[in-house]
């Protein structure tokens, strides 16, 4: 569905700055309707890769292309949700304004946008009473659901979730993952799920790529990668149990 070919991103390099190869020669294809986990420790280049994919940054070299682009595909084929919901939502807006923001920006009149707000919240299993709440009246997990609902308003083909569960406790993280699993089915979309916690993806992600220093170390279906890791790095991660 989305093909990355030899994608690299370097930072710095001017004057005495050192060059950082944040993403280094990455090639893979995201398939339709899969959950693809991108795993790596802090600084491995996960967020940079996510921003390249959604177009917030341009690669230094390589290409990112949609295959089989659907006719009349909506403008926003991809949406991104970040780790910290407080940085991506206006604290002075009620939830109904937050979830409908992309619809209103795309020109839908406010009244028609509001009419869709309740069903968007329904998709993320939040009751309609949340429409009138403000972000400070919601928990971290609820705010991430609201951020997901806002992304869903554009019917994305690809949802990029960059560490969206990393600040949550394990049971809230699990609930949000279950929600993403059911959304994969009901919305028929692809989810790029970024995390540094390898131990959370069994039974959740279809495929996984392990990244270190900007380079994909290995890639495969989740079960076989966890059962028979091919690289020493992945084996070390599994032995360690958790990332540092
Ligand atoms: N705008 C930038 N300018 C310069 N260097 C950057 C910039 N953004 C990221 N980097 C560097 O690129 C590398 C990869 O950073 P990135 O944020 O992609 O990692 P990450 O895997 O998302 O880490 P984390 O798990 O901490 O979020 C790091 O060495 C980082 O310092
Ligand atoms: Mg990051």
From TrEMBL:
<feature type="domain" description="ABC transporter">
    <location>
        <begin position="2"/>
        <end position="238"/>
    </location>
</feature>
<dbReference type="InterPro" id="IPR017871">
    <property type="entry name" value="ABC_transporter-like_CS"/>
</dbReference>
<dbReference type="InterPro" id="IPR027417">
    <property type="entry name" value="P-loop_NTPase"/>
</dbReference>
<dbReference type="Pfam" id="PF00005">
    <property type="entry name" value="ABC_tran"/>
</dbReference>
<comment type="similarity">
    <text>Belongs to the ABC transporter superfamily.</text>
</comment>
<keyword id="KW-0067">ATP-binding</keyword>
<protein>
    <submittedName>
        <fullName>ATP-binding cassette domain-containing protein</fullName>
    </submittedName>
</protein>
<keyword id="KW-0547">Nucleotide-binding</keyword>
<dbReference type="InterPro" id="IPR003593">
    <property type="entry name" value="AAA+_ATPase"/>
</dbReference>
<dbReference type="GO" id="GO:0005524">
    <property type="term" value="F:ATP binding"/>
</dbReference>
<keyword id="KW-0813">Transport</keyword>
<dbReference type="InterPro" id="IPR050319">
    <property type="entry name" value="ABC_transp_ATP-bind"/>
</dbReference>
<dbReference type="InterPro" id="IPR003439">
    <property type="entry name" value="ABC_transporter-like_ATP-bd"/>
</dbReference>
């Amino acid at each position: 569905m989305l093909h990355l070919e030899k994608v690299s991103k370097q930072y710095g390099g001017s004057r005495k700055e050192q060059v950082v190869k944040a993403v280094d020669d990455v090639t893979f294809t995201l398939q339709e309707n899969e959950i693809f986990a991108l795993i790596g420790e802090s600084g491995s280049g996960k967020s940079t890769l996510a921003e390249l994919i959604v177009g917030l940054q341009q690669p230094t070299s390589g290409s990112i292309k949609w295959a089989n682009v659907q006719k009349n595909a909506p403008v926003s084929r991809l949406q991104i949700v970040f780790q910290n919901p407080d940085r991506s939502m206006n604290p002075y807006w009620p939830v109904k304004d937050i979830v409908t923001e992309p619809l209103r920006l795309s020109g839908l009149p406010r009244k028609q946008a509001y009419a869709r707000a309740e069903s968007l919240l329904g998709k993320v299993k939040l009751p309609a009473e949340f429409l009138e709440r403000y972000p400070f009246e919601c928990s971290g997990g609820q705010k991430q659901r609201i951020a997901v609902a806002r992304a869903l308003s554009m019917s994305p083909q690809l949802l990029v979730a960059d560490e969206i569960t990393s600040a949550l406790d394990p049971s809230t993280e699990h609930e949000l993952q279950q929600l993403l699993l059911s959304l994969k089915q009901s919305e028929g979309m692809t989810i790029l799920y970024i995390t540094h916690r390898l131990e959370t993806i069994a039974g959740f992600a279809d495929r996984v790529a392990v990244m270190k220093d900007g380079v994909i170390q290995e890639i495969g279906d989740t079960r076989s990668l966890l059962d028979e890791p091919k690289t020493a790095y992945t084996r070390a991660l599994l032995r360690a149990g958790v990332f540092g």
